[in-house]
Amino acid sequence: LFAGSCDFIFGAQKLGQLPPQTLPEIAFAGRSNVGKSSLVNALTGRKTLARASSQPGRTKQLNFFDLANRLMLVDMPGYGFAKAAKSVKEDWQGMMFDYLRGRPSLRRVMLLLDARIEIKQHDLDAMKLLDRAAVSFQLVLTKCDSVKPTALAQKEEEVLALTKRHPAACPFLSLTSSETGQGIEQLRAELAAFALP
Ligand code: GTP
Ligand code: MG
Questions:
Q1: Is residue 139 in contact with ligand 1, taking CB distance under 6 Å?
Q2: Which of 11, 97, 114, 170 could form a disulfide with 61 if both were Cys (CB 3.0 to 4.6 A apart)?
C-alpha cells in the first residue's frame, strides 16, 4: 500500500467540493500544530506531500491524498488555533461536523494529541462530536520524541483513561513520532486494514 503511488487529489474548502466517495477514507484531525500534516508525510514516506509548518493554522482545507487507489487519507485543518478569527473557528467546527456526519466512506478518524501538551477542552469537544456522530476514532500521541519516558508513561495512562470514557474511541493508543519514525510502521499496518484489496 505504502510502496505504491500517493497523489494529492483535492483540497476542499467547502463541503460542496468534496471528491466522490470511491475509496475508504481515514481522516487526521487534531489541534493546530499537533503534527497532522507531518504524520501524513511520515506515513506516506513523502516529506513534502502535505504541507507542514511550525506556524499553526498551516492547513486550511480538507486535503485528500489517494494512496495507490486503495485508500484516501484526509489531512484536516487544525482546531483550537487561538489566533484564528471566531468565524474561522466556527466554520471549522461546522465543516468538520458536517463532513463527519455526511461521509459514509469515512472509516476512522485519527485524533492526534501532542504528547508534550495538556489535553485541552477542544480535544474533548472533538471526541464528544465523534461519539455523537458514531465515527470510530483512534487516539494518536504525536511528538513522542520530545518527552521524557516518565512523562510519556503518565500521558499514556491519562489518554487510555479517555478511551474508556468515549464510546467511539478505539480501546488502544498509538505512540508516534514523525521525526524518529516511532510507531509509524504500526500505524501503516492499521491503515492497511482499511484499504481496498
Ligand atoms: P496545522 O495544519 O496548522 O493544523 O498543523 P499540523 O497539525 O498539520 O502540524 P504540522 O505537521 O504542520 O507540524 C507542526 C510542527 O510540529 C512543525 O514544526 C513540525 O516540524 C513539528 N512536528 C511534527 N511532528 C513532530 C514530531 O514527531 N516530533 C517533533 N519533535 N516535532 C514534530
Ligand atoms: Mg497541517
A1: no
A2: 11
Give the number of the ligand closest to the Cα of residue 83.
1
Q: Looking up cell 483540497, which residue turns up?
A: 11
Looking at the domain covering 6-192, what would its CATH class be? alpha beta
Q: Whose CA is nearest to atom 31 of ligand 1?
A: 143
What pTM value is reported for the model? 0.95
- Whole-number pLDDT of residue 85: 67
pLDDT in tens, 46-78: 888 888 888 887 787 889 999 999 999 999 988
Average confidence score pLDDT of the chain: 91
Separation of alpha carbons 174 and 96, rounded Å = 22
- Residue extents of the structural domains in the chain: 6-192
Distance between Cα 4 and ligand 2 center (Å):
23
Structure ipTM: 0.99
Return averaged pLDDT per consecutive 10 residues of the chain, 197 residues in all: 86 87 96 95 90 82 93 90 66 76 93 97 91 95 98 97 98 98 98 97
Sheet strands side by side (includes 62-67):
6-12, 62-67, 71-75, 25-30, 106-114, 137-142, 169-175
Q: What are the grid coordinates assigned to 69, written together? A: 487507489
> Which ligand neighbours the alpha carbon of 57 most closely?
1
Nearest-CA residue for atom 22 of ligand 1:
35
